[in-house]
Amino acid sequence: MILLMLTLPIIAFTSMCAFYEARWTVRNYEQTIVPYSLGVFVVYSYAVMCAFPPNESAVFTYTSLGYVIGIWMIGFIDDRYGDGEPKGIRGHIGVFLNDRRWTTGLIKAVGTILLAGVYTFLSQPQSGITSIMMFMLLCLFPHIMNLFDTRPLRVWKISLMVSAVIVAFMPIPRFSTLVYVLTIFYLVYVMEGERKAVLGDNGATATGAILAIWLTHEGSAELQYFSVTILFLLLLAAERVSFSMWIAERPFFRWMDGIGVMKKE
Predict the structure, then answer these.
(1) What are phi and psi of 37, to 5 degrees?
(2) How large is the average pLDDT for residues 47-57?
(3) Looking at residue 259, what is its pLDDT?
(4) For site-directed labelling of 174, which of 3, 29, 145, 248 has its Cα 20 to 30 A away?
(5) Which long-range contacts (CB under 8 A, 24 or more apart) does 146-150 make?
């Protein structure tokens, strides 16, 4: 795992350059053109752990990897071909009902539901309630992470907090695994904090997919119920308010939002 860790900065840098060359870029909130290449880095990092699993957990299976890659692909389609409108799930459904047109956002929503359903079926949960919790987490987590990905490091901070909660209830991981995961967090922190690259829809949804898988297999039932409740409430809130505006109007959350984001000179 330590040797494979050396490939991480190479993948992060080369994917950034490749996306620049292909003009797979977006204007961020500062109107700076940046590549949405960090999703490739996230998926690669997870794929390595599935190929060389640190333990026998169902988190690191090729079935799980297939779900994550599928989520990444539909996120990439939205990055590549989406026009940014309309906003919210109701907006995408409205376009479909009124214009009989599939938006990339609606494709992403339907694709996520289908992938979550297939993964839940293949995982064969032990009970009906476990199946429902798994399905809800697999559907909601990628979408909510995507909604928060409008400023640098928001997804990174949420991922760090969720990971810390899950790890608190797990056996202590091996040192090599811990170093590998911290390296992933560090590289995303540097590249996104300095606005060299962004996660984009593809990276944010893939990150949410990985956390959802981890939570379904390693999180306690109580933590899963709590997570589904919070995610569902956030989904409802997103149809009425802008998360960015809500954060900007509250000093404490505005301060947290700015932690780690390098100031422009």
Answers:
(1) -100, -10
(2) 90
(3) 86
(4) 145
(5) 146/75, 146/201, 146/204, 146/205, 146/208, 147/234, 147/238, 147/243, 148/204, 148/243, 149/198, 149/199, 149/200, 149/201, 149/203, 149/204, 150/29, 150/243, 150/244
Per-residue pLDDT tens digits for 180-236: 999 999 999 999 998 899 999 999 999 999 999 999 998 888 999 999 999 999 998
Q: What local confidence, expressed as pLDDT, does residue 86 receive?
A: 66
Domain tally for the chain? 1
- Which phi and psi (to 5°) does residue 33 adopt? -80, 120
Q: What's the token pair of residue 180?
A: 């590998």
Closest alpha carbon to 40 in 260, 209, 198? 198
In a domain, 130, yes or no: yes
**Do 35 and 161 meet the contact criterion of CB atoms below 8 Å apart?**
no
176 located within any domain: yes
Which residues in 25-74 belong to E strands, given as ranges?
Answer: 25-27, 33-35
DSSP 3-state percent helix, strand, coil across the chain (nearest 5):
75, 0, 25
Residue 265 lies in a domain: no
Pairwise CA distance, residues 224 & 138, whole Å: 11
Does residue 264 sit within a domain? no
The distance in angstroms from the start CA to the end CA of the chain is 38
Helices (H), 23-61: 38-51
